Amino acid sequence: SLIDIGFEFPFYGEVYSQFLINANGWIGFQEDNTEWYNGNIPSIDYPRPAIFGFWDDLNPVNNGGTGEGYVYYHSTPERLVVWFNNVQHWPTNFEGSIYDFQMVLYPTGEIKFNYRSMEGYTNSATIGVQDSMGENGTLVNYNYSLHS
Fold it and tell me: Can you say whether the dihedral through the CA atoms of 31, 33, 38, 40 is positive or negative?
């Protein structure tokens, strides 16, 4: 479900006051998308509008009793922080892959990505942003190794 941001966030000509957190390393502003297999953006085939901090098949602690690490958020009128705190990659062939990163949004529209510790397999994620139509975006990283 959508969560109040705490301020009006401008993003590709739209203004959003609510967001969602997807367990697979991204946040969005409309509908959730269960797609775990990341891809090259911008694309209408992938979650949108979205901010991809480290979109991959992640596995934080969940209702099924599996996973490792937690996802937190904190919002003030000055910023929104979404923190993936030592979240594991889905374990199949990725054992020991643990990621600690944040996405920080500001009322100016500025977005910061913070990467504290990216251990294990890090060359299968999408990092970037894309608009609600999947036509405009900025790809920072797609399937290239990311280091702490």
Answer: negative
Q: Which candidate, 7, 48, 15, places its Cα nearest to that of 31? A: 48
pTM, 2 dp: 0.95
- Alpha carbons 99 and 34: distance in angstroms, whole number: 20
Q: Give the DSSP letter string of 31-71.
A: ------S---SS-TTS-SSEEEEEES-EE-S-TTS---SEE
Residue-wise pLDDT for 90-136, tens only, equals 987 888 899 999 999 999 999 999 999 999 988 889 999 999 999 99
- Side-chain-side CA neighbours of 104 within 13 Å: the count stands at 10
CA pair distance 58, 102, nearest whole angstrom: 14
Q: Which two tokens stand for residue 16?
A: 């959003």
- Let me know: does 102 contact 87? Beta carbons within 8 Å: no
Q: What is the distance between the alpha carbons of residues 95 and 7, in angstroms, rounded to a whole number?
A: 38
65: Cβ contacts below 8 Å, ≥ 6 apart: none
Q: How many CB atoms lie within 10 A of CB 108?
A: 10
